[in-house]
Amino acid sequence: MSGGCGDAHRRRDRGCYSIGLMTDELHVEPLGLDILAITTCLVIDVEAFPRPALVLPRDVTRRGSQVWVCRSGATGEILGFLAAHRVGDTLHLSALAAGAAYRRRGVGRALLATAVAHAKKQRLARVALEVHKDNEAAILLYENQGFSPVKTLPSYYGRGQHALALVLDTRPQRSSRAAKLRSRGGQG
Ligand SMILES: CC(C)(COP(=O)(O)OP(=O)(O)OC[C@H]1O[C@@H](n2cnc3c(N)ncnc32)[C@H](O)[C@@H]1OP(=O)(O)O)[C@@H](O)C(=O)NCCC(=O)NCCS
After folding, report:
1. What does the pLDDT look like over 24-51, one tens digit per residue?
2. Ligand 1 atom closest to Cα of 98?
3. Does 21 map to a domain?
4. For the domain that residue 178 is a member of, what is the CATH number?
5. What is the spatial distance between Cα 72 and Cα 88, in angstroms, rounded to a whole number?
6. 91 lines ligand 1 (CB under 6 A)
7. 3-state secondary structure the chain
8. b/e for 30-57, b at 16 or more Cβ within 10 A?
9. What's the 135 CA to ligand 1 centre distance in angstroms?
């Protein structure tokens, strides 16, 4: 199956984000308190990370926290999840994983797009996260979605295990706003 979104169409309604792929459709929705869905997320978490990334029930119930899951439209199966929480005017991503059998199918991209759209809707200034500096797949995913590295965090994941801090500004840049105003005013 094609894993890219180039051949995908996108639909957004009632807070859900869907990507129609050629052979399946991905639906992103809030996790909620469905015990089966929570269990699936925990299984994906165990497969994906050396230590649990999803902290339950905190990540679902804490004010300002949000977990989204990505489901297969064909089977309803949960293929991945993303956990985020708000810190001031920043949406901080604390966990993103696609099930090992479902990678390179657009799951990570769909979840990330949902979190970024949520931050914009909430008028937050940025989306931020840390990622292991050797996690090439994740760094490519984030950079392709417009995130930029802002600093290295030495030994963030333990001795010698460095992290990169990445940020996406979600507000229009001052310079582009100024350019728009100038062009509206007919100035050069
Ligand atoms: C990182 C992760 C979430 C990506 O999810 P995914 O659903 O496989 O990613 P997508 O299919 O949406 O890929 C989107 C883009 O990311 C990049 N990418 C993803 N996986 C990649 C890989 N293994 N190698 C190179 N690029 C990759 C590509 O640019 C890809 O676009 P393309 O397929 O059109 O080339 C997944 O690999 C994962 O769960 N890893 C383990 C947990 C983890 O490391 N989480 C991130 C912690 S911050």
Report:
1. 799 999 998 889 999 999 999 999 999 9
2. 39
3. yes
4. 3.40.630.30
5. 33
6. no
7. CCCCCCCCEEEEECCEEEEECCCCEEEEEECCCCHHHHHHHHHHHHHHCCCCCCCCCHHHHCCCEEEEEEEECCCCCEEEEEEEEEECCEEEEEEEEECHHHCCCCHHHHHHHHHHHHHHHCCCCEEEEEEECCCHHHHHHHHHCCCEEEEEECCCCCCCCCEEEEEEECCCCHHHHHHHHHHHCCCC
8. ebeeeeebbebbeebbeebeeeebbeee
9. 9
The parent domain of residue 79 ranges over: 8-183
Overall number of domains in the chain? 1
114 contact partners, CB below 8 Å, separation of at least 6: 17, 28, 68, 82
| CA of 100, closest atom in ligand 1 | 39
* Contact 101 CB / ligand 1 (< 6 Å): no
Ligand 1, atom nearest to 110 Cα: 12
The model's pTM: 0.85
Distance from the alpha carbon of residue 5 to the mean position of ligand 1, in angstroms: 13
Residues of the chain with pLDDT under 50: 1-16, 21-22, 186-188
